[in-house]
Amino acid sequence: MKRVYVNEDWCLGCHLCEYYCGLSNSGMADMVKAFSGEKKPLPRIRIEEGDGINFAVQCRHCESPFCVKGCITGALSVNQDGIISIDESRCVGCYTCVLSCPFGCIVTSEDEKAVKKCDLCLKNGGEPACVKGCPNRAIVFEER
Amino acid sequence: MNYVIIGNSAAAIGAVSGIRAIDKAGAITVISDEPYHTYSRPLISYWLQGKVTDEKIYYREPDFYEKNCCSAILGKKVTAIHPDKKELSLDDGDKISYDRLLVATGSSPFVPPMKGLESVKNQSTFMSYDDAKKVKSMVTPNSRVLIIGAGLIGLKAAEALEGKCAEMTIIDLADRILPSILDLEGSAIMQKHIESRGAKFVLNQSVAEFSGNQATLKNGDILNFDVLIVAVGVRPNTALVSEAGGKVDRGILTDNRQRTSLKDIYAAGDCTVSHDISSGSDRILALLPNAYMQGEVAGCNMGKADSAVYNKAIPMNAIGFFGLHIITAGTYQGECYSRQTETGYKKLFYQDNLLKGFILIGDVNRAGIYTSMIKEQTPLDSVNREMLFENPVLMAFGKPYRLEKLGGIKGE
After folding, report:
1. What ipTM does this complex have?
2. What are the helix (H) ranges across chain A?
3. Any idea what the CATH number is for the domain that residue B280 is in?
4. Residues of A numbered 97-126 whose beta carbons fall under 8 angstroms of chain B's beta carbons: which are they?
């Protein structure tokens, strides 16, 4: 399946992927409006920054996903294409998926009980907004 | 192939998924003594709280059986397994035959013998949807609720009843709350937090005698209550297998393919004994993720012998009470790295170059990075330990790991 892959040598650490992800999942059209409100859109991707190294991390859409297997409600599921997504209406915020994800890719929110995660922009047109917005092709959406 | 599953919860559903990954055509029959479509047992407290409706308590979509070509026999109890005839007896006299059988019978609430318990009119355990319905029907805004057991189940019941009753007292024989997952310091943090929401604890104490709505404690104190919830613990349901001649200890014994000692009979979930790789000991791990994964492995092996193993079981819990989250995993042995955080603390336990366990209260983000290290037994000298202990980050794992996991590039 197509996944978002990271080339950490090319990552500038600009965090634009986080902004595009947050915007894409906010339901709003305008970046400035989306991020100027009191409640900031929550990105499902995060940049880890270190001594001269930066890279983006988001859901790896594992073939054997512990988050889905451990989910106590069945809110997390895998579709026929292997994409893992969450039905937020069924998430009670127990965080068993946070406990289970080996890559730390489940995002929690202080304002809402339901967790968030990358679904490869399945519900937002199918092409990941983070990849579209990356200025240096440090993340790509392809088969590997 | 004719597959039969006794049970209809996480292990059973995992097994259906495991069987169907291998065998799309075989017949699957799911049998449960509860009359409901598969529902999420941990959701009963959320249901009682009013945060989950009857329509949303299901564990898998309403068309799950249909989609997976399963037939479900609900509301009937299996009374015996006859391994020689490869047959089950049901409580209505029916016989069901099987080629491969999964026992996923779960666990039952343990109610210790307590003098006068039968004189308590309004009492319930807290394990099933029916229990939750019963509790809901008994509790009124004027009720004084007494909960026996300050473990995960008792405290989830307490959380669910906040604001729905007049008084709530939780009593436990242990000297602290949540003793199965927390150390003393963690228990104290959670106790203070839960007390701030109005619940009262009576620890180091037990009931000597009940008389109607009155409990006399061992120390002579008298507690008056209207509703009693017994949440002392659970015991694996092993009788079907032991009566059929299968090997049983505290739970049903299986190998790492989830086979019992009886031919073509598998077992998974709360009814079994698991091998905890973090402590190296055999124990009951009554946890939903463990049940699902054991069930899935059992299902795969029922479909095709030796097609899967389950050898990474560890204790692990994610749970929150009144907005304060706890994530714990593994075994608390060895040296301890500890740090206070704004809302709680973090403790990591390590020994012999391995992370053995952890307790996070409050800030639990990215805890799974630690869980994975325990399960995969990642040597600590292969990562930047200082960085990792400070925060669970992938930066600490080095470039080859990231190239593989994030870059999809293997073996460079």
Report:
1. 0.97
2. 16-24, 31-36, 66-70, 96-100, 129-133
3. 3.50.50.60
4. 97-104, 106, 108
